[in-house]
Design a protein that fits this description.
The protein has nine helices and no strands. The chain is mostly helical.
Length: 171
């Protein structure tokens, strides 16, 4: 991570995010090794960079809620698996930021939403977003947990709305 002085940091936004979901406090432990970005399937096909997102949250930069980046994450948890630090849950942070974005009236831009819907459709119809994103099949318990995450993140709602619009367009 780049070098910053104490005046560059504003903890208010970080504290808000932690107040919503206590596990988000662990992002402060990020040492910015970059393994997460290097292994991230979303970073391979977009400008997604979780290190940049974490830096904005820690600096109190709420513009992250308007950024397209938070909508490019596949929630595949590759970052969580490869991170050398325990307890940093990037997918949970991304879901929290997406919900905050909706609460503030931002949400995704059309192109972001289209990618989000495509990702959601692949996940809901095939169970994966990218080919073997984790290198192994998910356990039944993990699939159930991901369904809860999808409900929380409104992925199923977005997918159903998209599917309904496709049916209307066909007729």
């Amino acid at each position: 991570m780049d070098q910053y002085s104490d005046s560059d940091w504003n903890w208010d936004f970080f504290n808000e995010i932690v107040e919503d979901i206590e596990d988000n406090k662990n992002i402060i432990e990020c040492t910015s090794w970059g393994k997460c970005v290097g292994a991230c399937p979303a970073a391979k096909v977009s400008n997604f960079n979780i290190r940049r997102i974490i830096r904005k949250v820690l600096r109190g930069d709420k513009s992250v809620l308007k950024d397209s980046d938070i909508w490019y994450c596949y929630l595949c948890e590759m970052c969580k698996r490869i991170c050398p630090r325990d307890g940093i849950n990037i997918p949970l942070l991304i879901i929290n930021l997406r919900n905050e974005s909706f609460k503030k009236g931002f949400g995704p831009k059309y192109n972001d939403l289209r990618k989000y819907v495509e990702m959601s459709e692949r996940f809901l119809t095939t169970g994966v977003v990218v080919e073997e994103p984790l290198g192994e099949a998910l356990s039944v318990e993990r699939v159930k947990e991901l369904n809860v995450i999808c409900n929380f993140a409104r992925i199923k709602y977005v997918y159903k709305a998209s599917k309904g619009n496709k049916d209307k367009i066909k007729t």
